[in-house]
Design goal:
The structure is a homodimer of 338-residue chains.
Chain A: E1 7-8, H1 10-23, H2 28-43, H3 51-63, E2 73-78, E3 81-85, H4 91-109, E4 111-119, H5 125-134, E5 137-143, E6 164-170, E7 173-180, H6 187-195, E8 205-206, H7 216-221, E9 223-224, H8 230-245, E10 268-276, H9 283-298, H10 308-320, E11 322-323, H11 326-335
Parallel strand pairs in A: 3-4
Antiparallel strand pairs in A: 1-11, 2-3, 4-10, 5-6, 5-10, 6-7, 8-9
């Protein structure tokens, strides 16, 4: 390599991820899919779901918290509905086969729904809905996770950070992707701060006793704060019903941690909806109105589109690669060897 | 009546609403549907969409800003998709015929979508998704409105308060309904404060110059603040695409005010999704898991379910009726006469 050894190209990120997963007894085909998701996360600058999480993926595959050999099982349950049982394996391959069927059904029917159950951390939710938009549809995604947000008025976490994601195709540019957790900040960001021994800003979280904190480790033991107060808690509840109750997955309160080794498979769920633009506004009217809307945002000084930071990172990492902390890189290389 | 004349029973609210609408040249059948929605709003204590708005409905019907004679036109565009052109009439009758088809298609296909275009203020969004849940489905609703929220980083409103609503059936109690605007507070609340000459709390809105304000009239000329900062602006954008771009309705920036007489029909849009529980988790598993989730909330001291305030109001107004300000009541009685 002509670059310093702590900078990896995206191809190297993907190759390293693949090696770490295969060394952890993950089937080659599944390792390829998950490695690609790690690459996409790093490409977009979403480090909490990139190499920083890869070690945990490998560790969980080794101890059976995620089954690296699982064959996801797809069942078409209606003309416009499909379920995939991830069989306690990675979410990514379950979502990949599910989305192919989802977009086919949405084209036939006007809208379709995909419910994934018995699944694991799905990485960056926004990337899955971006795939729906790349296929020409408007996409919605919902995912639950181990508990980290208390209900409004309470103190004990019962919701995951429960993000909602949305994507829609835009003429002559990548899809618009909105990917937001129900908390003020994603749990992955707090994990990253803990990993790097960096304090978190006030207002992100409270301790287990309900006190404000800037210590990421105390925050991880306490409760994340919902975004916008009771409205964030309301969104977390919507996502919980969509991603867990409707899919037959574990509720967040029953899901084991994505971070540590305890408790067996988390069995969380994901739900996706694809809507056929052609059956509603029609593609030309959609493109034209959506263009007007996006211009009304970008024409305002200071205003920006959601996802712009990710797209900017996508350009720069493709050109410059990604900087990987030496300690993290050494640990991953070690894990890729056995 | 044995009650003081400034307290109306819900039946009296509905009858008065019907008279005001018919006097404003609204067709009897449409007046009945809209009057019922005013009653439901007052029953749930949502006064901003109750009698306080009825005078505007009548005035707009008189001047043709809403067509009180319009015959909404339904088109089935796919096995699971339906569009209704409200023809610049009230949203309520368009939604009523649309929801009947929506739930039929969702039962056949597993999920279905209803897009309403060329429409008007739909009243309480949560009531329409509650109807979807009462029919046994999980419901989502999106609606846009004249501009009142600026994009994140900008100063000029381009989004309506753009609420999102969700409802799901609960065994042995009314559906859980979550109905949240993308702003810190609904515009209707600020209109109500302006009507009653009451100041608004700080943090609800900014003036046209971007300054914080407690004057509801200045707030109505400026911009509402999105809930949770950029995440509320993100939600407003999602809702704008779902309710306006996908339905072929006016963008919020092109929609005339719901409050004053200028600009002709607002031609806003609504979009609803119904999901068939039987095709996903199955009704028994859904009921059982949903029950666990709701208990995990209500078991926590201090925690409360979204919509509890509305349900409590529903009980008390059914028993005690609703207090109507004398000035408002006198004005409405006057309007019902000619």
């Amino acid at each position: 390599m002509t670059v310093p050894d702590h900078v990896l190209t995206l191809a190297e990120v993907e190759a390293l991820s693949y090696e770490v997963l295969v060394a952890a007894n993950v089937t080659s085909n599944i390792a390829r899919i998950v490695a690609r998701s790690v690459r996409r996360a790093e490409a977009d600058g979403i480090r909490s779901h990139g190499l920083a999480r890869l070690g945990t993926y490998g560790q969980h595959a080794r101890i059976g918290k995620v089954d690296g050999q699982a064959a996801a099982e797809l069942t078409k349950t209606g003309p416009a509905s499909v379920r995939v049982d991830a069989k306690c394996g990675f979410a990514h391959p379950a979502i990949e086969i599910g989305l192919m069927e989802l977009t086919k059904l949405a084209r036939e029917s006007g809208i379709a729904v995909l419910a994934i159950t018995n699944s694991y951390n799905c990485g960056v939710l926004g990337h899955h809905v971006e795939d729906i938009a790349d296929a020409g549809f408007v996409g919605l995604g919902f995912v639950n996770a181990p508990p980290s947000i208390a209900p409004w008025g309470g103190h004990t976490p019962i919701f995951g950070t429960n993000p909602i994601a949305f994507a829609a195709p835009v003429a002559n540019r990548p899809p618009l992707v909105i990917d937001q957790s129900s908390s003020v900040i994603a749990r992955g960001e707090i994990m990253l701060h803990a990993q790097q021994d960096k304090p978190i800003p006030k207002g992100w979280a409270i301790t287990a006793d309900g006190e404000p904190t800037t210590d990421p480790k105390e925050a991880l033991k306490g409760s994340l704060l919902p975004s916008g107060g009771y409205k964030g808690a309301g969104l977390a509840l919507i996502v919980e019903v969509m991603a867990a109750v409707l899919t037959g997955a574990n509720l967040s309160i029953a899901a084991s941690s994505f971070a540590d080794d305890a408790g067996g498979p988390p069995r969380t769920g994901q739900l996706f909806v694809a809507i056929d633009i052609a059956r509603l506004a029609g593609r030309n009217a959609f493109d034209s109105q959506f263009g007007c809307l996006l211009s009304a945002i970008t024409d305002q000084p200071g205003a920006r589109l959601p996802g712009d930071k990710r797209l900017a990172a996508r350009s720069s990492t493709a050109r410059d690669g990604v900087k990987v902390p030496d300690k993290l890189l050494a640990a991953l290389i070690e894990k890729s060897k056995h």
